[in-house]
Amino acid sequence: MTNNWQGYTNKMLFHSRLLLEAWEGADDIAKPAFREACLNAMIQAYHSLLAEIMTNHRLPVQQLPSLDEAINSIHQKGEVSSELKYVERLEQQDSWLAALLKSHEECSMPIERKGINHNEIPLFNESSIRYDLPGNLLSALESLKELVTYSRNFSLEW
């Protein structure tokens, strides 16, 4: 059974856009909830894109994969995916995707209420991308859409 990952990716991108608009218009008390929901939908779209790439390599996908799972599955088949190599580079650089994943990870963890440790290395430097404002996340959403388009165009070529 082939899953329609492309349809799911599209749905999550649409939900992301709706949640981003709701975040922009929300009361201050509701803004964090819409931000987190938007981040969750964008991450679902990202993982669904990875599933799309796997199905393009004729691999069965029953649940949303991580990047490592996608790469390993394609390698086990004896193939290499230049799309996944590109995505892997995006995850490892100080890019919009790395910042999106980090922001999602931060909101997926319980809040620690402790004093500031001045010896800790900050997670973001001053030039890092932050997704605390709707406008910044809109930029990431547009980049995610471009990545989806790139991947789909690439898969049509072969």
Question: How is this structure best described in words?
Answer:
With 158 residues, this protein is mostly helical. It is 66% helix and 0% strand. It is built from 6 helices and no strands. It has helices spanning 5-25, 31-56, 67-76, 82-92, 96-107, 134-157. The longest helix has 26 residues, at 31-56. The two termini are 22 Å apart. Residues 118-128 have low confidence and may be disordered.
Order of helices and strands: HHHHHH
Question: Whole-number average pLDDT?
Answer: 85
**Rg to the nearest angstrom?**
17 Å
Gap between N and C termini: 22 Å
Any key phrases for this structure?
single chain, 158 residues, mainly alpha, 6 helices
Produce a short descriptive summary:
With about 160 residues, the protein is mainly alpha-helical. Helices cover about 65% and strands about 0% of the residues. It has six helices and no strands.
List the topology elements.
Layout lengths: L4 H21 L5 H26 L10 H10 L5 H11 L3 H12 L26 H24 L1
Helix pairs in contact: 1-2, 1-6, 2-3, 2-5, 2-6, 4-5
